[in-house]
Amino acid sequence: MFKEERSKPTFSWDLLGDVELGRPNLGRTTDVAVYRLMQFTLRDILISKHGVQSADEIFYEAGLLAGKQFYINVIRAKEDFNSFVADLQMALKTLNIGILRVESFSTDGKSLTLTVAEDLDCSGLPLCEEQICTYDEGFIAGLLSEHTGHSWAVKEVDCWCSGDRVCRFKANQID
Q1: Can you tell me whether residue 70 is helix, strand or coil?
Q2: What is the C-alpha to C-alpha distance for residues 157 and 91, in angstroms, rounded to an integer?
Q3: Distance of alpha carbon 53 from the chain centroid
Q4: DSSP 24
Q5: Phi/psi of residue 167, each to 5°?
Q6: What distance in Å separates the CA atoms of residue 87 and residue 124, rounded to the nearest whole number?
Q7: Rounded to 5, what percent of the chain is helix, strand, coil?
Q8: Is residue 1 predicted with pLDDT exceeding 80?
Q9: Which residues, other chains included, contact 53 with Cβ-Cβ below 8 Å and sequence gap of 6+?
Q10: Cβ contacts of 33-41, under 8 Å, gap ≥ 24
Q11: 3-class DSSP string for the chain
């Protein structure tokens, strides 16, 4: 499961296990600091061993895979964009991931700008003049790709860490 070599991802939602069975007393939630501890220490090791660019690529790809799986297993297929966004907003808020808002959506449906307030990855972190939500970029691209059937490029343009109070993402369909 986790020890075999592979040349492409083999993630399955089943790998998340039965949390209710395994954690009957502690339940499904944990502190945000624990999530960040895992993410930031992993990122630190990846940067020290492979460099910033490779670490960013890995985090984006992991987010992409997670976004696709989240869409398939949590959001599920929606007929229209408004239903997709409404269900996504509810899921992200219910799971304490963030508060999503679509700022703009092009008339051709191939580009949009959205924000995530109280973002799980960075809200409350010290100012560092960087956009750090690379995993979120991939996650959003994965969600959009699964919903539309097209590939998307997503880039964070504003971040809590660069002085904003929301994370803002520009998304463009690329095929």
Answers
A1: helix
A2: 23
A3: 18
A4: T
A5: -95, 130
A6: 26
A7: 45, 15, 35
A8: no
A9: none
A10: 35/120, 36/121, 39/121, 39/135
A11: CCCCCCCCCCCCHHHHCCHHHHCCCCCCCCCHHHHHHHHHHHHHHHHHHHCHHHHHHHHHHHHHHHHHHHHHHHHCCCCCHHHHHHHHHHHHHHCCCCEEEEEEECCCCCEEEEEEECCCCCCCCCCCCCCCCHHHHHHHHHHHHHHHCCCEEEEEEECHHHCCCEEEEEEEECC
State the helix-helix crossing angle for 32-50 and 52-70, rounded to 10 degrees.
140
| pTM, two decimal places | 0.95
Locate 141 and state its tokens: 């691209």
Q: What is the pLDDT of residues 61-115, one digit of tens each?
A: 999 999 999 999 999 988 899 999 999 999 999 999 999 999 999 999 999 999 9
The dihedral over CA atoms of 119, 123, 129, 131, expressed in degrees to the nearest 10, equals -10
Beta-carbon contacts of 104 under 8 Å, excluding residues fewer than 6 positions away, are 112, 113
